[in-house]
Amino acid sequence: MKEQHQIGYSFVVMASVVIVLAGIKSASEIIVPFLLSLFIAIILSPSYHYFKSRKIPDFFSLLLVISFFLIVLAFIVKLIGTSMNDFSANIDLYTGKLSLYNQHLFSYFNSLGLEFPADEFSALLDTKQLMTFGTSLIQSMGSLFTNGFVIVLTVVFMLLESRNFKEKVYLADKSKETLDNVVKISSKIKHYMVIKTAISLFTGLIIWWGLLFIGTDYAFLWGVLAFMFNFIPNIGSIIAAVPAVLITLVQLGTLHAFFVTLLYFSVNIIIGSVLEPKIMGKGLGLSTLVVFLSLLFWGWLLGVVGMLLSIPLTIMAKIIFDANENTKWIAVFLGTSEEV
Q1: Measured distance CA(189)–CA(209) in Å, rounded
Q2: Between the CA of residue 229 and those of 56, 134, 137, 196, 216, what are the distances in Å?
Q3: pTM of this prediction?
C-alpha cells in the first residue's frame, strides 16, 4: 500500500512539473524579459551598492548606474546595427565565394580519388544559413529590447528591492539558518553572474581586437557574438567561431582563416580552461552533457534567448540544489567529474 502511495505521488509530481513547464512556455513572452531584467539587475547590483556605500543617495546611485548602462548599450547597439546592415547587404557576395570554395574543395578530393556527393553536402550545409547564424541570434536578443523601457524599469525596481532583501527574508522566516542559506545562495549567484560577465566581456574584447589586427570584416560583430556565447562553456566558443572563420576564409584566404581559428582556440584554452576555473572556483562547473541538454531544454522552453540564458539558469538551479541536503545529489549530477 505504501509503495502504491509513493508511485501515485511520483506521478502527481511529474504531472505538476509538466503543467508548470507548459505554463512557462506559453508565458515565455513575459518570462524572458523578466529573466533578462533579473540578470541585468544582478550584474549592476555591485555598482549600485558601491555608490550607496559611499553615502550617495538612492536616486543618484540609481541614476549613475542606469545612465552608464544605457550609454554603453546605446553605443553597442549603434555599432552592431551598422555592422549588421553592411553584412546583410554583402551576404550574397560572401555566400557565392564560400560556395566556390566548396566546389574547389570537392574537385580536389575527386582528383585524389575520393568521391564526395557535392550536391548532397551543399544541401546539408546551407552556406547562407551558416553565415547568418550569428547575426540571427544577435537580432533575437535585440528584439527583446523593443520593450526596453519595461526592462529598464524592472531593473530599477529590482535594484531598489535589493536594499531590503535580507530584512524581508528575516521577517518572512525568523530562523537565522534560513537567512544564512538565502544570503549564501544569492551571493553565490551574484558572484557567478558578475565574474562570468566580466570574463565574457574580456573574451569579446580579445576577439574583437584580434580580428581587427587580422583584418576580418565586422570584427565588432563577432566580438559581441563571442561575448554572448562565452556564457555557454565547452561548445559556445566553437559556435561563435564559425561565422568569423568563414568570413575570413572568403575575404582574406586560407592562411588568415587559420590565424582566426588559432585565435579562438587560444582564447578558449587560456581563458576558458585555465583562467576561468581559477577565478570561479569549484562548484560552479557543469558537465558537457548537462551543457548540451541545458541548451536543448531552455531553447525549447524559452526560444533562442533561452539557449543563451541556459547556462546561467542551470548554474543558478545548481547553486540552489547544492544549498539543500535533500537536493544536493542533483547538484552533484549536474557538476563536473572534478567536483566528485
Answers
A1: 30
A2: 36, 10, 10, 11, 19
A3: 0.78
pLDDT digits (tens, 9 = 90+) for 264-323: 999 888 887 777 777 766 556 677 778 788 888 888 888 777 777 788 888 888 887 877
d(Cα 129, Cα 94) in Å, to the nearest integer? Answer: 12
Task: Tell me which residue of 21, 32, 28, 27 sits closest to 312, measured CA to CA.
Answer: 32
Three-state SS letters, the chain = CHHHHHHHHHHHHHHHHHHHHHHHHHCHHHHHHHHHHHHHHHHHHHHHHHHHHCCCCHHHHHHHHHHHHHHHHHHHHHHHHHHHHHHHHHHHHHHHHHHHHHHHHHHHHHHCCCCCCHHHHHHHCCHHHHHHHHHHHHHHHHHHHHHHHHHHHHHHHHHHHHHHHHHHHHHHCCCHHHHHHHHHHHHHHHHHHHHHHHHHHHHHHHHHHHHHHHCCCCHHHHHHHHHHHCCCCCCHHHHHHHHHHHHHHHHHCHHHHHHHHHHHHHHHHHHHHHHHHHHHCCCCCCCHHHHHHHHHHHHHHHCHHHHHHHHHHHHHHHHHHHCCCCCHHHHHHHCCHHHC
Phi-psi region of 175 (alpha: psi -120 to 50; beta: other; left: phi over 0): beta
User: Cell triple for residue 210?
Assistant: 584580434
